Amino acid sequence: MLFTYAEQILGFTKTITVVSVFIVALVGILISAVIQLIIVKIAGKNVTFKQLFSMNTYIALIGAVGMLLNTLIQISIGGDTSIYVTSLGSLFNSDSTVLASFEVFSIWTLILTAIGLHRVGQLSKTASSIIAIIFFVISIGFALLGGVLEGIAAL
Hints:
The protein has helices spanning 5-42, 49-77, 88-91, 97-101, 104-119, 125-154. The protein is mostly helical.
């Protein structure tokens, strides 16, 4: 069976999207691990990059499972796959990027990051929690920036 040009482009686009998601995820994990390593080294703790990278990789799996679960739920109910069912945005029927950032799996990731920095990074519970919250606030900032850029592109 011969594929049309449009089908070939669609297949290529889907492949590029999947590959780019993995690359962006790995870069995000790498950057998080480097920043955490710098913070932990400034605190004078003995931890390796490999330990923090491994910790962040396992924690990122939680977010990936959440994304997959939300996408499957939205596809099965015929909803918008860009809105997570497990977020406050979905609960309040809002398109707000801030409300969408407060999502069950992202909060779970926040808690696991704090626990990981306490156990792996040997930081105090308070310091670990503050660092994890700062990372969460930065992710909300990126979500806001993405929403602003999306709004500008729509003009």
